[in-house]
Structure formats: C-alpha cells, structure tokens
Amino acid sequence: KIPKKDKFFIYSHIMDLHDRGYINRPIRFLQKLSLWPKWILNKKTNRTFKRFLYDISLHFIDKELGKLIELSRLKSYQLFIFGDHGCDIHDIDQRNFSEIFGFRTHREHINVPLIIYNSNNKINNEGFHDSMSISATILDELNIKPHKSFKGRSVYKIGKKIIISENCGRGNCDVERKDLYFTITSKKYKMFVLIQKNKIKIKRLYDLVKDIDEINNLINLKSLKKEIKTLLSFFINERKDLLKKRKIKINLQNLNNYIEP
Q: Are 164 and 239 contacting, i.e. CB atoms less than 8 angstroms apart?
C-alpha cells in the first residue's frame, strides 16, 4: 500500500533470488511453479532445477518491478533500482579458479546497475562512482544535504579518479582483528591489497585496458612499480585512520617488502 501523505521514502530489499527455494509463502511459490511449462519449452543450456528456481524468481521480480515502474510513471514518484553486487559468473570460466570471498571484486562482481525513474538530472559519466554514490544520488534527488563526514559522490557530479572497494570476508565486520581485503581501481589499473594483523600485502595488479577480464596478474613486473606506488599512496591517504588503528606503517621506497602474489 502506498502512503497517502505527499512526501514519503520507502527502502525495500528484494530477496527472492537469494531465497528462491523458500516456501514460507506457499501460494506465491505455487504461482512460480506454474511457470514450469513455459520455462521448459524455452531453449536452455542449463535445465537444472536450481536454474529453474533462479529463472522463475527473476521472472517474478521483473513482473513486480514493472508494476512499480508503471506506478511511478502515473503518480510521478521517483524510483531507484540497484543491486547489492554484480552478476558473479566468470571466476571459474575465465580464471580457472573460484575467487576467495574477500577478493570478489573483479569487474563482474562489483559492476552494479543503478536505474532511476522520473529524474530530470543528467548523469555525469566522467570518473568512477562507487557504492556510496547510490545513497549520495538519492540524497541529491531529495535535496538533502549530507553530513560533512559523508564521502559519497552523486552520479550527477564528476566521479573519482580512483576508488576503493573493501571487504571483511564472511561473517562480522571486525576491522580491528579480521583480515581485510581492499581493491584500488583507477582508469587503467586495479590492485588487490590484503591486510593481515599489522601487515600489508599487495597481491595482484591488473591492466584494465589490455586485460578487460582481469586474468593476468602483473604484480611482479618491475616496469609497473610506479603505478603500484601511485595506487598504494592513494590507499594510505584514504585509509590512514584504519592503518593507524592496526599499527601499520608503510615505506613506499621499499615496495618489494609488501608485494606477495
């Protein structure tokens, strides 16, 4: 039900794909199962029941989002649609191994769509926009000024030259004790960094121009030391509070002490 008030904000996390096998709503689950004949008649390369559960959940989500889109068009509501992660399908196919959870920051893992309905603002494609840009964009649309500590940058503004993706791995987010995974991305390079206790390890470097699928690790190439230093310098400046808390000191003149593929 849509509130009758003129101004409201609703955030909804749709979990159908994650919870595709749950039957706590039996009628809804039976509605999905009714799509079996239509699904089986389509030419599918993967006809497993797991694939079927994924497909019918996606079909259901598309149908329900269609209703929201039509409602936003008729009522002049603003609608923001985005994902919590990318498609996550290329690890084994292209890299011949399943990526560890902390470094699931390859292109297919972190490229997240953002769809906006009923906005007159123009998107700025210059630079990078990260996950903080989603909340920044919503605040921008609502004309709400964020707190001075907020680092997000709206997609209507120029993006950043370098961005950092971070992960605490599975479980709780204990930044003081757990292993921390960071990915520093520029227009041309992507670098993976791991923090274990009070030690920092530079694990991988990819050339995003020549190696779009991020397969060839170039971390040991001496000719790229300057690029590694640039990305690491940015990381140190952006996460100085964290490094101080973990009692980590980095000497940029001795990069070989940190490179550990």
A: yes
Between CA 218 and CA 227 the distance in angstroms is: 11
Pair 72, 117: CB distance under 8 Å: yes
What percent of the residues of the chain are helix, what percent strand, and what percent coil, each to the nearest 5? 35, 15, 50
Residue range 108-162, pLDDT digits in tens = 899 988 999 888 899 999 999 999 999 999 999 988 999 988 889 999 999 999 9
Q: What is the pLDDT of residue 4?
A: 64
CB neighbour list of residue 22: distance below 8 Å, 6 or more residues apart: 29
Nearest to 108 by CA among 92, 95, 89, 93: 89
Return the residue matching tokens 């003149």.
Answer: 253
Measuring CA to CA, which residue among 81, 44, 76 is closest to residue 64?
81
Residue whose tokens read 């039976």: 30
Confidence (pLDDT) at 9: 82
Residue 209 to residue 187: CA distance in whole angstroms: 8
Q: Any idea what the Cα angle at residue 65 is, between residues 64 and 69, rounded to 5°?
A: 125
pLDDT of residue 248: 93
Q: What letter would DSSP give residue 165?
A: E
DSSP string, 127-143: SB--THHHHHHHHHHTT
Give the residue from 118, 117, 85 showing the smallest Cα distance to 101.
85
Q: Are strands 199-207 and 189-196 parallel, antiparallel or unpaired?
A: antiparallel
